[in-house]
Design goal:
15 helices, globular, 9 strands, binds ligand 9MR, eight-stranded parallel barrel, alpha/beta, 44% helix
Length: 356
């Protein structure tokens, strides 16, 4: 008892000495406030996402830690595509996608699903499928409803149809159009809605910033779905763009999408520095600054649309070392806000500045 009193008395003496030395009145001291670290998810007024690669999430702690720290929304770069989830007619492989969804739930992040219908990344069994129109319709419906049903209540939103418009503004002559006609697009949305009435459903495409031809065709498509009473919640602007694109074209892409009244997701952003795909190309601080200015212009235009329509901005993978661009085009490039050493580039601060 006596030693307990002695201990309390000495602790009091120490803390009083502390207060005296900093001349703070112990009676009015405020509880310690935790200083919030500046990260994309802490600092931006809308969701900030990244497309992630499951192998890197599993094998690379630097990559995973950066995703955990910076982002509050996750898209699977490849793990939810048809070929990944449904490699044979009666076989579904959920493990990689489930891994991501479980990671997101455990770390309090939103999951955006990508993608239920695309003309690429189809397994051979679909490309080679010999069936009647009814059998193709069943294939489309079964895939969509099995996938949406599996993730019901965990994946909040889906890119239902991806890249159905060609660059010349016509409906892309995909395998789906060949087998089912152009109205398959609306039915894909209906099938997804039936499987999870709470999921937000997006049409996702690239090239809104190229000019009016493709953009108008995309906007006409989503407006016609709406006017037919088909449930569509949002429009995804992929925004695989380049440092040479004009701010005006980028802003028009965003404002015209918002004029539909739908939610707008900048769903796959990256900004190429080497759009001519030169084999030998050098990353310079000038280019990094130009890229930063372009990120800022996009964020600024996005921040100007109504809050209720801001679904968020998702970058396509995490660092320059993981981007699809160098491998896809066999050329060097540095399109993302983080460098290959997981460090923030000038684009990072520019994104934060875009909402100031
Ligand atoms: O980044 C993805 C790459 O790893 C895949 O090989 C490729 C084919 O499935 O798809 C890439 O992601 C694309 C996305 O799914 C749709 N929009 C264009 C993206 C870049 O090609």
């Amino acid at each position: 008892m006596a030693s307990g009193l002695l201990l309390s008395a000495s602790l009091l003496a120490i803390s009083c000495a502390k207060y005296q030395s900093t001349s703070i009145d112990p009676g009015v001291i405020a509880p310690l406030k935790q200083v919030e670290e500046i990260t994309l998810q802490n600092s931006m007024p809308f969701a900030m996402g990244a497309a992630v690669n499951v192998s890197l999430m599993k094998s690379n702690a630097n990559y995973r830690d950066l995703v955990t720290k910076e982002f509050n929304s996750i898209t699977a770069e490849n793990a939810m595509k048809f070929a990944s989830l449904h490699p044979a007619k009666d076989t579904y492989t959920w493990s990689d996608a489930d891994y991501l969804v479980n990671y997101a739930i455990a770390s309090g992040k939103r999951v955006h699903g990508h993608t239920l219908n695309w003309y690429k990344s189809l397994p051979d069994w679909v490309n080679n499928f010999q069936g009647t129109t009814a059998e193709w319709e069943n294939l489309l419906k079964t895939h969509i409803q099995t996938v949406v049903g599996h993730f019901k209540g965990k994946v909040v939103s889906w890119d239902v149809v991806n890249e159905a418009i060609a660059d010349d503004g016509t409906i892309r002559n995909s395998i789906w159009v060949q087998k089912l006609g152009t109205d398959y697009i609306g039915r894909a949305f209906q099938y997804a809605h039936e499987a999870d009435p709470d999921a937000l459903l997006f049409y996702n495409d690239y090239g809104h910033e190229f000019g009016p031809t493709k953009r108008t065709a995309i906007l006409n498509l989503v407006n016609s779905l709406k006017s037919k009473g088909i449930l569509i919640d949002g429009i995804g602007l992929q925004m695989h763009t380049r440092v040479t694109q004009t701010d005006a074209n980028l802003a028009t892409a965003i404002s015209t999408a918002a004029a539909t009244g739908l939610k707008v997701h900048i769903s796959e952003i990256d900004i190429a520095l080497n759009p001519d795909r030169a084999q030998s190309f050098t990353y310079t601080s000038t280019l990094a600054d130009q890229q930063a200015a372009k990120y800022k212009a996009i964020v600024k235009a996005y921040n100007a649309i109504p809050k209720a329509q801001q679904f968020g901005i998702t970058q396509w993978n995490v660092t320059d070392a993981d981007s699809w661009i160098p491998s896809n085009y066999s050329c060097p490039d540095w399109p993302l806000p983080f460098d290959g050493q997981y460090q923030r580039k000038p684009a990072y601060q520019a994104i934060l500045d875009g909402v100031k």
